[in-house]
Amino acid sequence: MKNLGILISGRGSNFEAIARNVASGKIPARIVAVISNRAEARGLELAREMGLNARFIPSKGRPRDDFEGELRETLETLQTDLICLAGFMRVLSPEFVKQFPNRILNIHPSLLPAFPGMDAQKQALEHGVKMTGCTVHLVNEGVDSGPIVLQAAVPVLDEDTVETLSARILEQEHRIYPEAVRLLAEDRIQIDGRRVLLKKDSI
Ligand code: GRF
Q1: What domains, with CATH codes, occur in the chain?
Q2: What pLDDT is stored for residue 13 in this prediction?
Q3: Which of 5, 72, 78, 158 has the fewest CB atoms in 10 Å of its CB?
Protein backbone atom coordinates (compact mmCIF):
# COMPACT_ATOMS: atom_id res chain seq x y z
CA MET A 1 0.00 0.00 0.00
CA LYS A 2 1.48 3.36 -1.07
CA ASN A 3 1.88 6.34 1.23
CA LEU A 4 0.42 9.56 -0.18
CA GLY A 5 1.44 13.10 0.74
CA ILE A 6 -0.86 15.84 -0.46
CA LEU A 7 0.33 19.43 -0.85
CA ILE A 8 -2.20 22.23 -0.91
CA SER A 9 -2.37 26.01 -0.60
CA GLY A 10 -6.09 26.77 -0.50
CA ARG A 11 -9.60 25.39 -0.95
CA GLY A 12 -8.54 21.76 -1.14
CA SER A 13 -11.39 20.36 -3.21
CA ASN A 14 -9.05 18.10 -5.20
CA PHE A 15 -7.50 16.88 -1.97
CA GLU A 16 -11.02 16.14 -0.73
CA ALA A 17 -11.86 14.15 -3.88
CA ILE A 18 -8.69 12.08 -3.45
CA ALA A 19 -9.34 11.59 0.27
CA ARG A 20 -12.88 10.32 -0.37
CA ASN A 21 -11.57 7.80 -2.88
CA VAL A 22 -8.94 6.65 -0.40
CA ALA A 23 -11.58 6.36 2.34
CA SER A 24 -13.89 4.30 0.13
CA GLY A 25 -11.05 1.96 -0.82
CA LYS A 26 -11.00 2.94 -4.53
CA ILE A 27 -7.43 4.17 -4.18
CA PRO A 28 -5.30 1.53 -2.45
CA ALA A 29 -3.16 3.96 -0.47
CA ARG A 30 -3.02 5.81 2.81
CA ILE A 31 -2.73 9.56 3.22
CA VAL A 32 0.25 10.14 5.49
CA ALA A 33 0.15 13.95 5.40
CA VAL A 34 -1.76 16.92 4.09
CA ILE A 35 0.65 19.82 4.01
CA SER A 36 -0.21 23.42 3.32
CA ASN A 37 2.19 26.32 2.87
CA ARG A 38 -0.62 28.66 3.92
CA ALA A 39 -1.99 28.50 7.47
CA GLU A 40 -5.45 29.70 6.46
CA ALA A 41 -6.00 27.11 3.71
CA ARG A 42 -9.53 25.71 3.93
CA GLY A 43 -8.16 22.34 2.87
CA LEU A 44 -6.06 22.17 6.02
CA GLU A 45 -9.18 22.60 8.15
CA LEU A 46 -10.89 19.90 6.14
CA ALA A 47 -7.94 17.55 6.64
CA ARG A 48 -8.14 18.11 10.40
CA GLU A 49 -11.87 17.41 10.36
CA MET A 50 -11.15 14.16 8.50
CA GLY A 51 -8.69 13.19 11.23
CA LEU A 52 -5.72 13.28 8.85
CA ASN A 53 -2.20 14.37 9.66
CA ALA A 54 -2.56 18.06 8.70
CA ARG A 55 0.62 20.13 8.73
CA PHE A 56 1.40 23.77 8.07
CA ILE A 57 4.85 24.38 6.63
CA PRO A 58 5.25 28.11 5.97
CA SER A 59 6.89 29.28 2.75
CA LYS A 60 6.34 33.01 3.01
CA GLY A 61 9.31 35.20 3.89
CA ARG A 62 11.58 32.21 3.99
CA PRO A 63 14.42 31.08 1.71
CA ARG A 64 13.21 28.40 -0.69
CA ASP A 65 15.89 25.97 0.48
CA ASP A 66 14.59 26.19 4.03
CA PHE A 67 11.00 25.60 3.02
CA GLU A 68 11.81 22.74 0.68
CA GLY A 69 14.22 21.22 3.21
CA GLU A 70 11.48 21.03 5.83
CA LEU A 71 8.99 19.75 3.27
CA ARG A 72 11.36 17.05 2.09
CA GLU A 73 12.28 15.99 5.59
CA THR A 74 8.61 15.73 6.57
CA LEU A 75 7.73 13.70 3.48
CA GLU A 76 10.73 11.41 3.86
CA THR A 77 10.15 10.82 7.56
CA LEU A 78 6.63 9.72 6.72
CA GLN A 79 7.98 7.43 3.98
CA THR A 80 5.91 9.14 1.33
CA ASP A 81 5.80 7.21 -1.94
CA LEU A 82 3.67 9.54 -3.97
CA ILE A 83 3.17 13.30 -3.71
CA CYS A 84 0.00 14.94 -5.05
CA LEU A 85 0.06 18.66 -5.70
CA ALA A 86 -3.53 19.80 -5.32
CA GLY A 87 -3.81 23.54 -5.76
CA PHE A 88 -0.31 23.93 -4.35
CA MET A 89 0.79 27.39 -5.42
CA ARG A 90 4.56 27.09 -5.17
CA VAL A 91 6.83 25.94 -7.96
CA LEU A 92 9.11 23.21 -6.62
CA SER A 93 12.81 23.54 -7.45
CA PRO A 94 14.45 21.08 -9.89
CA GLU A 95 16.52 19.84 -6.94
CA PHE A 96 13.39 18.99 -4.98
CA VAL A 97 11.72 17.33 -7.97
CA LYS A 98 14.83 15.19 -8.59
CA GLN A 99 14.45 13.68 -5.13
CA PHE A 100 11.08 12.21 -6.12
CA PRO A 101 11.47 11.10 -9.74
CA ASN A 102 8.09 10.37 -11.39
CA ARG A 103 6.54 10.36 -7.95
CA ILE A 104 4.95 13.81 -7.97
CA LEU A 105 1.57 14.43 -9.62
CA ASN A 106 -0.09 17.74 -10.39
CA ILE A 107 -3.50 18.78 -11.69
CA HIS A 108 -3.78 21.73 -14.05
CA PRO A 109 -7.04 23.27 -15.30
CA SER A 110 -6.33 23.21 -19.05
CA LEU A 111 -5.50 20.71 -21.76
CA LEU A 112 -1.74 20.98 -21.53
CA PRO A 113 0.46 21.97 -23.28
CA ALA A 114 -2.09 24.76 -23.88
CA PHE A 115 -2.31 27.45 -21.22
CA PRO A 116 0.30 26.52 -18.61
CA GLY A 117 0.85 28.78 -15.62
CA MET A 118 -1.64 30.95 -13.77
CA ASP A 119 -5.29 31.59 -14.64
CA ALA A 120 -5.52 28.79 -17.19
CA GLN A 121 -9.31 29.03 -17.48
CA LYS A 122 -9.11 32.78 -18.14
CA GLN A 123 -6.36 32.21 -20.70
CA ALA A 124 -8.56 29.66 -22.49
CA LEU A 125 -11.56 32.01 -22.57
CA GLU A 126 -9.49 34.93 -23.80
CA HIS A 127 -7.84 32.82 -26.48
CA GLY A 128 -11.25 31.78 -27.75
CA VAL A 129 -10.71 28.02 -27.75
CA LYS A 130 -13.88 25.93 -28.07
CA MET A 131 -12.50 23.08 -26.00
CA THR A 132 -10.44 23.14 -22.85
CA GLY A 133 -10.31 20.86 -19.81
CA CYS A 134 -7.86 19.55 -17.25
CA THR A 135 -4.68 17.52 -17.11
CA VAL A 136 -3.07 15.31 -14.49
CA HIS A 137 0.65 15.11 -15.15
CA LEU A 138 3.86 13.97 -13.56
CA VAL A 139 5.95 16.85 -12.33
CA ASN A 140 9.29 17.35 -14.03
CA GLU A 141 11.72 20.24 -13.72
CA GLY A 142 9.62 22.65 -15.78
CA VAL A 143 6.30 24.32 -15.02
CA ASP A 144 3.21 22.30 -16.01
CA SER A 145 5.39 20.44 -18.50
CA GLY A 146 5.74 16.84 -17.29
CA PRO A 147 4.41 13.64 -18.89
CA ILE A 148 0.61 13.52 -19.10
CA VAL A 149 -1.22 10.80 -17.17
CA LEU A 150 -4.88 11.68 -17.85
CA GLN A 151 -6.87 14.49 -19.45
CA ALA A 152 -10.53 15.39 -19.69
CA ALA A 153 -12.01 17.76 -22.26
CA VAL A 154 -14.61 20.41 -21.41
CA PRO A 155 -16.37 22.48 -24.10
CA VAL A 156 -16.31 26.27 -23.80
CA LEU A 157 -19.84 27.67 -24.11
CA ASP A 158 -20.66 31.09 -25.56
CA GLU A 159 -22.19 32.20 -22.27
CA ASP A 160 -19.25 31.01 -20.15
CA THR A 161 -17.51 33.26 -17.64
CA VAL A 162 -14.27 32.32 -15.90
CA GLU A 163 -16.42 31.13 -12.97
CA THR A 164 -18.83 28.90 -14.90
CA LEU A 165 -16.06 27.40 -17.02
CA SER A 166 -13.86 26.80 -13.96
CA ALA A 167 -16.74 25.06 -12.17
CA ARG A 168 -17.30 22.61 -15.06
CA ILE A 169 -13.57 21.95 -15.34
CA LEU A 170 -13.39 21.36 -11.58
CA GLU A 171 -16.01 18.59 -11.81
CA GLN A 172 -13.71 16.80 -14.25
CA GLU A 173 -10.67 17.45 -12.05
CA HIS A 174 -12.41 15.66 -9.21
CA ARG A 175 -13.01 12.69 -11.50
CA ILE A 176 -9.61 12.30 -13.20
CA TYR A 177 -7.29 13.21 -10.31
CA PRO A 178 -8.38 10.31 -8.06
CA GLU A 179 -8.32 8.04 -11.13
CA ALA A 180 -4.72 9.03 -11.92
CA VAL A 181 -3.67 8.55 -8.29
CA ARG A 182 -5.21 5.10 -8.40
CA LEU A 183 -3.22 4.19 -11.53
CA LEU A 184 0.03 5.21 -9.86
CA ALA A 185 -0.87 3.66 -6.52
CA GLU A 186 -1.56 0.38 -8.30
CA ASP A 187 1.73 0.66 -10.26
CA ARG A 188 -0.21 0.46 -13.47
CA ILE A 189 1.66 3.02 -15.52
CA GLN A 190 4.73 2.75 -17.62
CA ILE A 191 6.71 5.79 -18.73
CA ASP A 192 8.09 5.86 -22.26
CA GLY A 193 9.77 9.21 -22.88
CA ARG A 194 6.99 11.77 -22.62
CA ARG A 195 4.29 9.13 -22.94
CA VAL A 196 2.57 7.58 -19.96
CA LEU A 197 1.16 4.21 -20.95
CA LEU A 198 -1.10 1.80 -19.14
CA LYS A 199 0.70 -1.44 -18.41
CA LYS A 200 -0.51 -4.20 -20.70
CA ASP A 201 -1.56 -6.60 -17.97
CA SER A 202 -3.52 -3.95 -16.15
CA ILE A 203 -7.06 -4.37 -17.44
C1 GRF B 1 -7.65 23.63 -9.34
O2 GRF B 1 -8.33 24.30 -10.36
C3 GRF B 1 -6.39 23.00 -9.86
O4 GRF B 1 -6.51 22.55 -11.17
C5 GRF B 1 -5.41 24.13 -9.79
O6 GRF B 1 -5.74 24.84 -8.62
C7 GRF B 1 -7.12 24.61 -8.29
C8 GRF B 1 -7.13 24.02 -6.92
O9 GRF B 1 -8.41 23.85 -6.39
N10 GRF B 1 -4.05 23.62 -9.80
P11 GRF B 1 -8.62 23.05 -5.04
O12 GRF B 1 -7.74 23.72 -3.97
O13 GRF B 1 -8.22 21.63 -5.27
O14 GRF B 1 -10.07 23.19 -4.71
Answers
A1: 1-100 (3.40.50.170), 106-203 (3.40.50.170)
A2: 98
A3: 158
